[in-house]
């Protein structure tokens, strides 16, 4: 397949350069456009790195099957050259430079996660390489003045904070005072999770909710028993956790082991960690922020509806009972690049950058339109609650929430 260019570091890939669209140049191998990505295929982010890679590859294959990318009167296939950044920012920086300076890649797909995107963005900016990223959500990424980075996803302050809005509205509807609700929370010490925390602090202050536990998860994300021991003693009403897929798995496992009871538990990366499969007891009732829903009324000419993308991806990867939103947004990032190449009708980096900045499109993943800072301003976050049967139920209104655990308030 054209997209299968995942190679070991140090292996050479012979490529040529061909002129298209009136002399603009692009790195191609025959009739194939080579995109580059340093991505976490090992290390603590490897689970989501794999989800991301599969989303990229799925989109590349589909676009190629449907005729590829048409530029300058010629059709091109897409392919991706991957290196493993080992979940390490320094390695991601090194590999981004390698892809651009040694391998000659002129267009980049982002790595997994905020920390690694922060490591790669200065490199792509320095060399004027357009990058469409699907996994770096920190709002701090979009305050640096980058002109060549574009993100299809919603920013991180919206991951867990709106859960408090939903809970507060539900409490009010039942004649209860949201200000009496207490919060226990634990976050990874990375840019993404700290932005998630900042959003939570803002909304908690709005309702005068008291934060009684505010912990950082350990660096390896393998144990949060210290936080949960405090939780058992203090009995807050709400438990919030953000630590990517490894942190989510740790939280779900130890909530089950320690028999933690709370009316509301909300964690990021539910689907990616497969908590509904691995820890069904603790997952029951969990609130899960998601960038995408498989029943969204959105569609495009390549994947059809959100539901069709979900169905087709599961056919190719039947191990997924619930496809992570990370995978869907990775596919959307490739589709955005394809659209920009064709609207630019060129592989000139500046022209493609300008086409990306002017993006305004509907996809199976949702609407995509970039602010001048590069973040997507056309799509909200969504929320789902895991049922006793392991299914994910969209939360359209506060009345949709259920409380399977004993309430303290």
Would you mind describing this structure in some detail?
This protein folds into two domains: 5-154 and 294-378, 3-Layer(aba) Sandwich (Rossmann fold), CATH 3.40.50; 158-290 and 383-400, Response regulator (Rossmann fold). It is 37% helix and 22% strand. It is built from 13 helices and 20 strands. The strands form six sheets. Strands 1, 2, 3, 4, 5 and 6 form a six-stranded mixed beta sheet that branches. Helix 5 links the parallel strand 10 (182-187) and strand 11. The longest helix is centred in the N-terminal third of the chain and has 20 residues, at 46-65.
Total tally of structural domains: 2
Give the proportion of residues in helices. 25-40%
Specify the overall morphology.
Answer: globular
CATH superfamily of the largest domain: Response regulator
Quote the distance from N terminus to C terminus: 56 Å
Query: What proportion of the residues form beta strands (DSSP E)?
Result: 15-25%
Secondary-structure content class: alpha/beta
- Mean of pLDDT: 90
CATH topology of the largest domain: Rossmann fold
CATH architecture of the largest domain: 3-Layer(aba) Sandwich
Radius of gyration based on Cα positions: 21 Å
Please outline the major beta sheet.
6 strands, mixed
CATH class designation of the largest domain: Alpha Beta
Number of helices: 13
Say how many strands there are: 20
Name the poorly predicted regions: 1-26
């Amino acid at each position: 397949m054209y997209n299968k260019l995942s190679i070991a570091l140090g292996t050479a890939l012979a490529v040529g350069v061909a002129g298209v669209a009136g002399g603009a140049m692009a790195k191609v191998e025959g009739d194939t456009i080579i995109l580059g990505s340093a991505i976490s295929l090992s290390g603590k982010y490897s689970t989501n790195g794999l989800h991301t890679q599969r989303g990229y590859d799925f989109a590349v294959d589909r676009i190629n099957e449907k005729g590829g990318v048409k530029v300058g009167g010629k059709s091109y296939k897409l392919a991706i050259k991957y290196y493993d950044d080992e979940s390490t920012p320094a390695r991601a920086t090194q590999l981004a430079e390698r892809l651009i300076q040694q391998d000659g890649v002129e267009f980049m797909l982002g790595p997994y996660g905020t920390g690694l995107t922060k490591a790669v963005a200065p490199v792509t900016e320095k060399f004027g390489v357009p990058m469409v990223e699907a996994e770096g959500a920190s709002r701090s990424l979009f305050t640096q003045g980058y002109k060549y980075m574009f993100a299809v996803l919603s920013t991180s302050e919206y991951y867990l904070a709106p859960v408090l809005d939903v809970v507060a509205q539900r409490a009010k509807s039942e004649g209860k005072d949201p200000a009496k609700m207490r919060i226990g929370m634990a976050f990874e010490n990375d840019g993404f999770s700290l932005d998630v925390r900042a959003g939570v602090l803002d909304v908690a202050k709005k309702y005068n909710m008291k934060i009684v536990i505010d912990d950082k998860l350990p660096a390896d994300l393998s144990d949060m028993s210290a936080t949960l021991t405090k939780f058992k003693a203090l009995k807050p009403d709400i438990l919030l956790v953000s630590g990517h897929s490894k942190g989510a798995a740790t939280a779900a496992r130890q909530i089950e082991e320690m028999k933690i009871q709370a009316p509301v538990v909300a964690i990021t990366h539910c689907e990616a960690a497969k908590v509904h499969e691995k820890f069904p007891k603790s997952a029951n009732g969990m609130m899960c922020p998601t960038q995408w829903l498989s029943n969204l009324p959105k569609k495009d000419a390549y994947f059809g509806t959100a539901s069709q993308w979900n169905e087709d991806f599961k056919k190719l990867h039947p191990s997924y009972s619930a496809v992570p939103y990370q995978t869907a947004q990775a596919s959307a990032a490739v589709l955005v690049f394809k659209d920009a190449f064709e609207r630019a009708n060129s592989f000139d980096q500046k022209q493609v950058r300008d086409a990306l900045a002017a993006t305004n499109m509907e996809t199976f993943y949702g609407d995509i339109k970039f602010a001048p800072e590069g973040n997507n301003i056309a799509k909200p976050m969504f929320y789902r609650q895991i049922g006793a049967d392991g299914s994910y139920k969209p939360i359209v209104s506060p009345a949709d929430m259920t409380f399977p655990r004993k309430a303290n308030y």
